[in-house]
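Continuing the batch. This is chain 6 of the set; chains 1 through 5 are on the previous pages. Same settings as before, nothing changed between runs. Recording input and output for traceability.
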Amino acid sequence: MTNPEPRLTSLAHGGGCGCKLSPAVLREILAGMPAVAAFPNLLVGTETSDDAAVWRLNDEQALVATTDFFMPIVDDPFDFGRIAATNALSDVYAMGGTPILALAIVGMPMGKMSAEQIHGILAGGASVCAAAGIPIAGGHSIDSAEPIYGLVALGLVHPDRLQKNSAARAGDVLILTKPLGVGILSAALKQERLPAGGYETMIASTTQLNSIGTELAGLEGVHAITDVTGFGLLGHALEMARGAGLTVEIDREPPLLPGVEALAREGVRTGASGRNWESYGEAVSLPDGFPDWRRDILCDPQTSGGLLVSVEADQAARVLELAESRGVRAAIVGRMREGEPRIRVVG
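Output for chain 6:
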């Protein structure tokens, strides 16, 4: 009798974008790194914690380059591969780019996982890339202590359509293109508290490509885009605020995936949401009496989350109409205000 295959999540100490180093730790590690100003063709580097590096090739093209990988957030190998690949490609879309190819990043604990499980992960990633119209043209694999999968993703963008996370303007409306709550659902899954339909909800969200970013980059009035992943809505909005030198005002309750509010009220959350708040809470103003469960949602790490779009107020309707036509559940969540780079949550 053969031993049963282990649950993927049992082989890793964390999962999804919740594996990311906390914002505070990352800032400390990157402090004092050499400046990149000496490279005039480097249009986007590490200065504002943007989603990808961008290198000008010529007057018509710039190369978007990024990498993203993590440990399993689910136990199904094919779904894990799909989620990781969707998440990696999101960085290209967040820059307004179009993916052209990917390379696979594979680290697996050999002897603990079967060849069939590993094949399933790679097949899941390949299926997403096929849906995006690109090949996985190579990659690298190692024998690692925990299962790791992701992509190096490359894309192209016209330099004039490049979307940075630092170019928001005062008066812009902020639109989020996916509901929040992936981290809470993943925590409930590990705790075996996920309600009926919760797994399907999580998979549908985390495998929905953010390809709308390429189209948004061509719309008049769209000034900045970033994707909301491991640092939660507050963390990535704060990066946008710091890059633009403006205040982000969250003046509407963000949309949530079904079942998330009930779980959050019951105290279900990831460890990463607490680390996120400890990292940037001093830069966030909350109303008096703001409940912890709502704060947890705003800090919830979003594996393969949506795009946060900064757009002129009179053009916001066009963004929402485009999203609806593409089957994307987008909603206004706030706006950019004059003021010091911080976040103010209203109501």
